[in-house]
Amino acid sequence: MNNQRTPVSFLSAAAALLVVTHAARAQTVTIFPDEYAAVPEGPLNSPNLPLARGTSRVMCLYDLVDLAIPVGDQITKVGFREDGQISSVEAGVAMQLEIRMGWSTADHQTMSSNFDNNYDGSPVTVFGPALYTPPTLRDPANPLPNGEFFIDLTTPFPFQPNGRNLIVEYRVYGTANGGAQYNYRLDRADYYSPVTYGPAGCQHSGGSVPNHTLQPTRPGLPWVGAVTSGPSNAPAFAAIAIDANLAQPYPIGSLFPGISQSCTGQLPVGSLVVLSGTTNNSGGKTWSFQIPNDNAFADLPISSQVLMLDFFSPGQVVVSNGAEVLTGARPRSTVLSAPGAPANVTTGSQLLYYCPVALFAHQ
User: Fold this and answer.
1) Which residues of the chain have pLDDT under 50?
2) Contact 64/27 with Cβ under 8 angstroms?
3) Does residue 103 contact residue 153 with C-beta atoms inside 8 Å?
4) What is the rounded CA–CA span in Å between residue 270 and residue 240?
5) In this structure, are residues 260 and 205 in contact, taking their beta carbons and an 8 Å threshold?
6) What is the CA radius of gyration of the chain?
7) Where are any strands of DSSP class E within 192-234?
8) Are 95 and 133 in contact (CB under 8 A)?
9) How far apart are CA 119 and CA 114, in angstroms?
10) DSSP 248-276
């Protein structure tokens, strides 16, 4: 008796195993912009885009620099999250929805106002046209898991960008409210610029400890640093390290003999930019400089610490805590939208840097 498996049966079994293995893979959810995985709530909201524009055509272009999906995965769901700063309950309206996905050689800054011209090749219909009702947002009786919801794609979309950017298009052919626009406020991203602080500085002769603070910023906005609770009317110097993180605190007695041991340096040793000034009667001072409006300056750590002269303190010098700001980047996304029957709509209005926080489930 021949118990050897034939090549055909072997290949069939292997194919079946691959299908089962792929199906068993856990789905991963990737967020756009990618830094919003660590940001539970954006500072803005999207009142009606992309799902509540009424009968319309809405196209979202996502630059891949902010979308960390592994090449070769398949996108199986698209989703959004409700805006947590809004308290009102907002129900979704039933609609006839089609979702298309495709690729574009344009980016968020070069996107065309002509819908079809943005596609490189033909788009793929990944959902519908089919009846879809978005879930109710912020319903205390039936809260969304983590404030998020997903649309299951009937046709998974292979993630093969080949250097191109992702397009997701929402075509709404009609709605249960007569095709009118309505409020359906989703969480919306802006630039993310976290600020971190080092340990407290040292006490000056007036009994207070100077406090150094920074404002979140991005390319095109100023760097703004301030000190409060310093000695009054004292010479003050903001030392700034660009493209550098805060250092572990270290003694600075070799630079300022006799200085209090609680006064530590918190900037990396190296090239520093120093801005000078004088504190006011309350011991406060603010400095600023403009960051070029160029994304080359995004995701850039800038560390700083303030030193002030105080002739009645040990070593005649006091320092603040250190501080670090990571420059943010506006969402590298643009939304193109227009009301009307999708089959008849060819051009729309662009919203540059507009980005309802988007979720992509893939495996």
Assistant:
1) 1-24
2) no
3) no
4) 10
5) no
6) 27
7) 195-197, 211-214, 222-228
8) yes
9) 10
10) PPEE-TTTSTT--TT-EE-S-SS--EEEE
First to last CA, the chain: 43
Cis geometry, peptide bond prior to residue 257 (ω within 30 degrees of 0): no
Sequence-distant (≥ 6) Cβ neighbours of residue 164 within 8 angstroms: 64, 103, 104, 105, 120
| Closest of 238, 298, 240 to residue 268, by C-alpha | 240
The helix/strand/coil state of 346 is: coil
**Widest distance between CA atoms in the chain:** 102
Q: pLDDT tens for residues 55-92?
A: 999 999 999 999 999 999 999 999 999 999 999 999 99
Cα separations in angstroms, 111 against 115, 189, 348: 9, 19, 11
pLDDT tens sequence across 106-144: 999 999 999 999 999 999 999 999 999 999 999 999 999
Closest CA to 330 of 280, 294, 277: 294
Separation between Cα atoms, residue 273 and residue 286, nearest integer Å: 15
Output the six-digit token pair for 108. Answer: 């968020």
Do 26-190+330-362 and 195-326 fold alike per CATH? no
Instruction: Identify the bridge partners of residue 94 per DSSP, sorted by sequence position.
Output: none
For residue 287, the SS3 value is strand
Is residue 121 within 8 A of residue 357, CB to CB? The reply is: no
Pairwise CA distance, residues 116 & 135, whole Å = 29
- Name the amino acid, one letter, at 135: P
Q: What's the token pair of residue 276?
A: 């000078």
In CATH, what class is 195-326?
mainly beta
Whether the Cβ atoms of residue 249 and residue 307 lie closer than 8 Å to each other? no
Domain boundaries, the chain: 26-190+330-362, 195-326
Q: What is the pTM of this model?
A: 0.83
State the pLDDT at residue 25.
58
323 with 303: CB under 8 angstroms?
A: yes
Tokens of 317: 């010098």
**What pLDDT sits at residue 295?**
87
Range 26-190+330-362: architecture per CATH: Sandwich (2.60)
